[in-house]
Amino acid sequence: MSYAIKALISGRGLPFLLVGLLLISVPSTISKPDEADGNDRKVANVSTLDRLHLNLFMNYDTNAQPTVQGKPTNINLGLSVNYLDIDELNSKITLHCWLSASWMDELRSWNPLDYDNITKVHVPASQLWKPEITLFNAAADDNNYLAETQVIISHDGKLLWVPTAVYTAYCNLNMLNWPYDVQTCKLKIGTWSQSHIEAAYDKRRPALDYDEMVQSTEWDIVSGKTKFVRQDHYNYVEFTFKAERRSSMYTAVIYTPASCIVILALSTFWLPPQMGEKILLNGILIVLIAAFLMYFAQLLPVLAGNTPLVVIFYSSSLLILSISTIIEVVVLYLATAQHKRRLPDCLKRLLHGKLGTWLLLSHFTSEAETQSRQGNGIVKELDDQLYDGPDDLTNPLDINPSEEPSARALQFDWMLLATAVDRICFITFSVVFIVLSIVYAI
């Protein structure tokens, strides 16, 4: 028995034994596809992918740029914006985006029929040649970082790489119309080593896409365009877009207080001329405007020649209120000082003539005359508050008396002049504020 076994192994039976062992070790993938079950198909697909991967990357050099018909392949770039933010203080823009880069490689193509109809494969980016893409107008040190996402290889030799990127670039901001400003910013994306670069990675989609952007709390992209720029030693794609500020919050925080300041500043001219509270009200408004200017200094950058119009409006209002305070001091003096001289006749004729009618002083004079007849009008009030003089029953409304007017009549004329100054300043300052609002687009 032992002799027969030795003869089978060492003699002519040895080849048959080896063939039998080989048939046992071969997987069931050699069977017909119609007879294979689901598990056998999965094994076959994995084997096909391995075979395709082996054929694609045999003798592959990751440092050599692919060629198409003997020429270096073109690099097509696209940008899909996810989020936008602008730093006004530092004049920088930050974009969270997907950078889409595609190129052709004629050696990385295959016939899908030879590989179970596989048309696309995903390969780690570290195993392939990739263009060295750079942001030329970068404003941060980490702008060259691109995520190591996988590269999609199509059967026609097209490669698509879509890494995530956070780009921070300098932007020339124009804050003149803040907070209703529209900023135009540019991203210059290219490569130092490859000169064949274009601004389109998919002819069916725009190179700059922001339709699926996450809504920013302050900015909206209203338009965008791309342009290829050729330089002597390098080329790049310039992505230009316009971002519009969402200003609904600023209307309530800035423009509503500005309207209230203007109304209060004009209302001081309608208070009685002998009231010292007018100066106090102007002082409060001056402090309020100064607080807004400090707020703007903290919020906005210092830009030469691009000072926001709203800031100029507030600073102009501060100057106007300062002048108004000086005028109110003069009016208060005219209304409360114990004058010894008569009001010039030319001013009396103006105050009791058409100018007085236009300034609504005739109503003031009629009301004073009525109160004087009742014994408790403005003449009595002046007699109690402004001076202590002898009792005189002379009518204060007599502008051309045959004799020297009484102290009450003299004081009433000066108060009438103070009221006229207030009314004229009200008209003048109203026109000034209207002009400021039109010029500075408030």
From TrEMBL:
<dbReference type="InterPro" id="IPR002394">
    <property type="entry name" value="Nicotinic_acetylcholine_rcpt"/>
</dbReference>
<comment type="function">
    <text>After binding acetylcholine, the AChR responds by an extensive change in conformation that affects all subunits and leads to opening of an ion-conducting channel across the plasma membrane.</text>
</comment>
<dbReference type="InterPro" id="IPR006029">
    <property type="entry name" value="Neurotrans-gated_channel_TM"/>
</dbReference>
<keyword id="KW-0406">Ion transport</keyword>
<keyword id="KW-0770">Synapse</keyword>
<dbReference type="InterPro" id="IPR036719">
    <property type="entry name" value="Neuro-gated_channel_TM_sf"/>
</dbReference>
<keyword id="KW-0407">Ion channel</keyword>
<dbReference type="Pfam" id="PF02932">
    <property type="entry name" value="Neur_chan_memb"/>
</dbReference>
<keyword id="KW-0675">Receptor</keyword>
<keyword id="KW-0732">Signal</keyword>
<feature type="transmembrane region" description="Helical">
    <location>
        <begin position="279"/>
        <end position="297"/>
    </location>
</feature>
<dbReference type="InterPro" id="IPR006202">
    <property type="entry name" value="Neur_chan_lig-bd"/>
</dbReference>
<comment type="similarity">
    <text>Belongs to the ligand-gated ion channel (TC 1.A.9) family. Acetylcholine receptor (TC 1.A.9.1) subfamily.</text>
</comment>
<dbReference type="Pfam" id="PF02931">
    <property type="entry name" value="Neur_chan_LBD"/>
</dbReference>
<dbReference type="GO" id="GO:0022848">
    <property type="term" value="F:acetylcholine-gated monoatomic cation-selective channel activity"/>
</dbReference>
<protein>
    <submittedName>
        <fullName>GH11231</fullName>
    </submittedName>
</protein>
<feature type="transmembrane region" description="Helical">
    <location>
        <begin position="424"/>
        <end position="441"/>
    </location>
</feature>
<dbReference type="InterPro" id="IPR036734">
    <property type="entry name" value="Neur_chan_lig-bd_sf"/>
</dbReference>
<feature type="signal peptide">
    <location>
        <begin position="1"/>
        <end position="31"/>
    </location>
</feature>
<dbReference type="InterPro" id="IPR006201">
    <property type="entry name" value="Neur_channel"/>
</dbReference>
<dbReference type="GO" id="GO:0045211">
    <property type="term" value="C:postsynaptic membrane"/>
</dbReference>
<feature type="domain" description="Neurotransmitter-gated ion-channel ligand-binding">
    <location>
        <begin position="51"/>
        <end position="246"/>
    </location>
</feature>
<dbReference type="InterPro" id="IPR038050">
    <property type="entry name" value="Neuro_actylchol_rec"/>
</dbReference>
<feature type="transmembrane region" description="Helical">
    <location>
        <begin position="309"/>
        <end position="335"/>
    </location>
</feature>
<feature type="transmembrane region" description="Helical">
    <location>
        <begin position="249"/>
        <end position="272"/>
    </location>
</feature>
<keyword id="KW-1003">Cell membrane</keyword>
<keyword id="KW-0472">Membrane</keyword>
<feature type="domain" description="Neurotransmitter-gated ion-channel transmembrane">
    <location>
        <begin position="254"/>
        <end position="372"/>
    </location>
</feature>
<keyword id="KW-0813">Transport</keyword>
<keyword id="KW-1133">Transmembrane helix</keyword>
<keyword id="KW-0812">Transmembrane</keyword>
<dbReference type="GO" id="GO:0004888">
    <property type="term" value="F:transmembrane signaling receptor activity"/>
</dbReference>
<keyword id="KW-1015">Disulfide bond</keyword>
<keyword id="KW-1071">Ligand-gated ion channel</keyword>
<keyword id="KW-0325">Glycoprotein</keyword>
